[in-house]
Amino acid sequence: MSSLQKYSLACMALVAVFSCSHYRGEEVIEDSLPAIWPDYKGVTIPVNISPLNFTLEQPAFHSPEENKGNAFSRLEATVEGAGGGFIKGSGKRHVRFPLRRWARLLEKNAGDSLLVTLRGWDGKQWHSYRPFTIYVSAQPIDHGMVFRYIAPGYEVYSKVGIYQRELSSFRTKAIYENTLVPQTCVNCHSFKQGDPDYFSLHVRGEKGATVLQKEGTFRYLDSRTDSTSSAFSYPSWHPDGRYIAYSLNKTYQSFHVTAEDRVEVYDLVSDIVIYDTQENCILASDLLTTGAFETFPKFSADGRSLYFCLAREQDLPSEYRDLRYDLCRVDFDPLTGETGKEIHTVIDAVSIGKSISQPVPSPDGRYLLFSLLDFGTFPVNHRASELALLDLEDGTWRLLDAWNSPDVESYHSWSSNSRWVVFSSRRQDGLLVLPYIGYIDENGCVGKPFLLPQKDPEHFYGTLTRSFNCPELVTAPVKLERRKLERQANRMDRETVQFRRID
Predict the structure, then answer these.
(1) What are phi and psi for residue 340, nearest 5 degrees?
(2) pTM of the model as a whole
(3) Domains along the chain?
(4) Which of 82, 399, 458, 463 pairs as cysteine with 55 (C-beta 3.0–4.6 A)?
């Protein structure tokens, strides 16, 4: 081989090498934390959550000349565990971490922290940002989250469904879509402390009914009777699984002319009854079926009390802005299914010009989480709605400033171990309701909440047109008897519910 041939081959080799790698040049060290989205900086996460993939808000450099064509074409992130372990994530528009390696890293660093270092390639050089911390709790979150997809701000029935998302991965599947039974709508899904073997779901429409799945038994209930005002809504399972508290609501919806307040929803009638699943009978007491407004029942963790929201009678719709609810409690006897004879006011919200909605006790019996708003009972429509926490041991309560935002916080659900809460918020764009997860310890201290992770968060949330309505945490996959539901709905084969009034 001649020297000229050898030189040509060497040049070709160098071209091949440099064509397969970036010329890095001088690395720029940015003296700031990266503006990532979703914002996962400083959050506390469960040991079994899916990877926190994120994108970077494109930076503004030091001069207009530098900004021209200077957007990052590649992102790279390294995650190092304080307890050991190391992974990398990368991508053109967002950082994506490998699922299995991420899971192993979290398991190795349970109860410790992760240090994340991000850098971006602008075509000429790398920009490296100050590292940020993610805290990993040893407390796991439940298997999945069940939610209702619905268009924001108003009811659209063309595409509504109940879905479940596995929280350790990105797998999402439908439980029920309204295409299964045309001209129906689904809502009011509920589980016994996250146990999918105890499942209540309401199907609305001419063929609708209340679906009840309990320990492998499927029932399609016609919950309307001559003695009740409406079908079942807002279910709450008793801890022993025999009883379900339901609200009976006649709901009215009106629309505003202003963009800020798009819609208002309120009840013209609302009562609370107890359904005995063993006897297939509604138990109604004069105490909870009055001319006042009783709604959002929730059993206590020990099953000996029933919490609910109560408002005095109002002339509706003219006085809907004066409709305010206190948090109340009544005793409950699990042996008879009967409530006590006296209503106890737990929080007098009316006296401070506020209204309480959606009370949810923690499974360990220590706390009760609720929505606080200026008036009414549907916080998802009120920008002023905030989350508040009641300590059931000493009776004190406080706003959860670390979780609240300038926009709507509403539907919320506890994990079975009482260490995690998923709640809905409109903070992203003021329109769509999105799910956030927050950590709470045994002393009521809360961590910075984080948006539900997605494989490609920018694309998923950027193209999303429906809200995550009523998120509920579940301990295992939900298995709905869809064929039975379809068959009985189309045949209108509904089981009649009995009614009994209790003195």
Answers:
(1) -70, 180
(2) 0.89
(3) 23-137 (2.60.40.10), 144-496 (2.120.10.30)
(4) 458
